[in-house]
Amino acid sequence: MRHLLSAADFSHDEAVAMLDLAEDMAEVNDREVKKLPTLRGKTVVNLFFEDSTRTRISFELAAKRLSADVINFAAKGSSVSKGESLKDTAQTLEAMGADAIVLRHSSSGSAFRLAHTDWVDSSIINAGDGSHEHPTQALLDAMTIRQSLNQDVRGKDLAGVRVLIVGDISHSRVARSNLLLLTTLGAEVHVCGPATLAPSSLVGKERVHYLLDEAIRQVQPDVVMMLRVQQERMTASFFPTEREYSRVWGLNKSRLSALDDKTIVLHPGPMNRGLEIDAASADSKNSKVLHQVRNGVSVRMAVLYSLLSGEKENA
């Protein structure tokens, strides 16, 4: 695998192998000296045309723990703000010696375009392209689910696990990547949200729910994944008011109590507390949000290692 552009890039066995590799990286992150010499001499560029905190820092930390050199490039305040194109920016960075470009961009398909032209020879990692996909987020979510449901995780998939993804499905690249990867791993994935934001085309009518209370009763999920309402991507009014959204589709203390004690709660962040999730749910023992953040570093180490490690390619 030269690039990581979509969660669909993984077969079942490849996804399990990547999660197992991420577990190896997690062991490195638990050591006193959190460093491997694997990517010494390699250069990783974080090319972010959209604001990010968790993803950019996570990729930066992952690359540094593998001993790679890291360049952080933010569009704001750069030549991009003066009108420079994605092509020119990427070619400039590669001319400086980039071996991998981690791209976050507001346009869906931007990572695919960068990878499938003759613009650059670098490995491309999709860190979120518009409303399309965010494959490393799906990997870290799958890793968190697998750890939460199994004592011995290595070699295990998610067969039979019931996952309920709730909220703004239409605009969520996290939802799309999770639908692909979790299904590949054998999970039964349902979605829930307003009819304007939960298209049946993604999962089939039988797995779409429009009321959260009913969805919890019918699905009896092992995992509830709450999504942020992405108002910055909305061009119209998709629900009456924030108060109405919270009342019908928000995870609150009452709905949390209706879940099984072992059901885990995930959120890709940043959380809008009081809108899609309340403080009681976000800070409950069911919440694995901080586990997701921690696993993000391990997953991104695994991805960078897989794409850039000469030892792995020659093995």
What strand line-up does the widest sheet have? Answer: 7-6-5-8-9
Radius of gyration: 19 Å
Q: Distance N terminus to C terminus?
A: 14 Å
Category from helices, strands and their pairing: alpha/beta
* Overall number of strands: 9
What secondary-structure arrangement, pairings included, does this model have?
Blueprint lengths: L11 H18 L13 E6 L5 H12 L3 E6 L11 H10 L4 E6 L4 H6 L7 E7 L5 H15 L12 E5 L6 H12 L3 E5 L15 E2 L2 H8 L3 E4 L15 H8 L3 H6 L5 E3 L12 H4 L6 H20 L1 H5 L1
Helix pairs in contact: 1-5, 1-11, 2-11, 5-6, 5-11
Descriptive notes:
The protein has 315 residues and is of the alpha/beta class. The protein has two domains: 145 residues, 3-Layer(aba) Sandwich (Rossmann fold), CATH 3.40.50; 158 residues, Aspartate/ornithine carbamoyltransferase (Rossmann fold), CATH 3.40.50.1370. The protein has twelve helices and nine strands. Strand 5, helix 6 and strand 6 form a beta-alpha-beta unit. Helix 5 crosses helix 11.
